[in-house]
Design goal:
It is built from three helices and three strands, in the order H-E-E-E-H-H. It is α+β, with helices and mostly antiparallel strands and 114 residues long.
């Protein structure tokens, strides 16, 4: 943990969580949400640290917009047009690429320099 702190929680966050943190909840991605007596809120990510793993309900709670802790009842879709939450895939092999970029670029409109 000391040498690979960028992949997981830092040593200071570990001690803060251990001594003052109270586990408030866990989301479907396995992230754990904590709170202390001074109403400081933080998250311990499961797997890679990626801020887009936080769902909108937990995001509102983390930023003190709402005080109600999201529970299992709120996990269902609120509207028929809503999609399930996914993390941002930019920069990975799973990122979105338009059809023009995915195609083989054999029919170029220009020639490269030689």
């Amino acid at each position: 943990m000391i040498f690979t702190w960028w992949n997981k929680t830092t040593l200071a966050t570990f001690f803060k969580t251990f001594f003052t943190g109270k586990l408030v909840g866990k989301d479907e991605f396995g992230n754990k949400y904590y709170k202390n007596k001074r109403d400081e809120r933080w998250v311990i990510y499961s797997g890679n640290i990626e801020a887009t793993k936080i769902t909108s309900d937990w995001y509102l709670w983390m930023h003190h917009t709402v005080n109600k802790i999201p529970d299992q009842i709120d996990k269902k879709k609120k509207y028929t047009w809503q999609k399930e939450h996914t993390e941002n895939k930019t920069g990975t092999k799973d990122s979105y690429k338009p059809v023009k970029i995915r195609k083989n670029s054999l029919n170029k409109k220009y020639e490269t320099w030689k």
